[in-house]
């Protein structure tokens, strides 16, 4: 039998199993058609074509109930390859719809289409979707709102209204060209020109740009009413402070799971993270700014501007300027840390947690902005004429030409190796001063870790002082993990685990590893058959190679026939 005929038979089998899984779906099945196109948008006096889904920026919202299924047929009418990632969705026994290109699937080429099956299992709250090819996610993203299963309710008083608040960036230049140029020159990519709320930068930019109003999102509220803000940091490279003038926020959820309520004036949210926050319209009727600005933990270029939206009380007609909140300083680490350290899982009978009390495998990985040699005869813009790179345990990830998942199932050799180191290959004083430059150079490759089904994994992320320290938002695909704890300096594997919270740690999918410090997470590899991508959600770091992957085996107790073959041909 010819190889192409075998591939066609596998594809047919895949579609039959795909339909079978739909028949077994417990909840409602939704179907959507999404078309990726280039659409002209104007911000800050600049008009340019941007990648959009169905012409929308931000993109379409998905509204589902816990346990539902959504079928998204994506048609690529743009000029770039594209994939979509469903950030925070676990997709049990559904490995082909996660989205990272060359890890879980081949990209959807221009003129082609691909159908994603989204299985909503135990997630509840807010997650999101975004492109996962180069920097296309800057404009290709949107909110996913997961409501409690029918017959159940929120673990808090029902809000009167729910409003997505998507924090993002606007670049006057072409974002795809920006990262391509940076990779060619070896230097830092250009920073954004504005921060946005729901795709609009706000009216403070009128002071810099003399054209018509650059656009401001307005939220109308009624006095005494409660509003659930579904906050998403879709920004490319920066953690954000978010604040509403003279109004408290009560954070009740994060990354698709509930937490014990935290009442605060300011939230700090990293790229990739989502937070659910209750806002009560309990102030004097007026107009109030919502504002977003950078929390900059490191000494790297960042956009110092402030994006705004306006919260307006209904029937308030005074045209006076909105009240502006007092924002933290860009380097206010105390405010950022005091907020994030309050997170605890709700951990009730209705919303239980299952924290692994021990681990089978610990991966202790350094997180480093590294360098690579400049190509012969060229001069690069990185440190000492090198090319900026990034790495985990000195391994700078290289995308293969065939996706890892396909290579695994079709036994294609030479695509990846299974020797990602479980500890730093060169131990040193990771957060010390005056570190030798010899530690900067990374090794390139496509190294993964193979996990037996149901293995309990602890990952300790270790920040380093190489090329300057900063926070790193580390994201794991296909799983949520329990964030056990964090600290400053080098992780001590004897004393630091005693500080872990194993009673009610938050269940999240993106953790902000502190500058010159460490963070520990734990998860159980109970989602078989997947290639699980793990990477920094600063896109410049991901582009430089701060990534790795896990391959989770099916295991003897898992019926492999329940995992359908790839619905897409080889790359």
From TrEMBL:
SUPFAM superfamilies: Cupredoxins (SSF49503)
Gene Ontology molecular function: copper ion binding; hydroquinone:oxygen oxidoreductase activity
Highest taxon of the lineage: Eukaryota
Keyword Metal-binding: yes
Domain Plastocyanin-like, residue spans: 37-150, 162-315, 420-555
Enzyme Commission number(s) from the entry: 1.10.3.2
PROSITE patterns: MULTICOPPER_OXIDASE2
Protein location: Secreted, Extracellular space, Apoplast
Group of enzyme by EC: oxidoreductase
Cofactor note: Binds 4 Cu cations per monomer.
Chief localisation class: secreted
Catalytic activity: 4 hydroquinone + O2 = 4 benzosemiquinone + 2 H2O
Names of required cofactors: Cu cation
Function: Lignin degradation and detoxification of lignin-derived products.
Family per record: Belongs to the multicopper oxidase family.
Entry protein name: Laccase
Lineage: Eukaryota, Viridiplantae, Streptophyta, Embryophyta, Tracheophyta
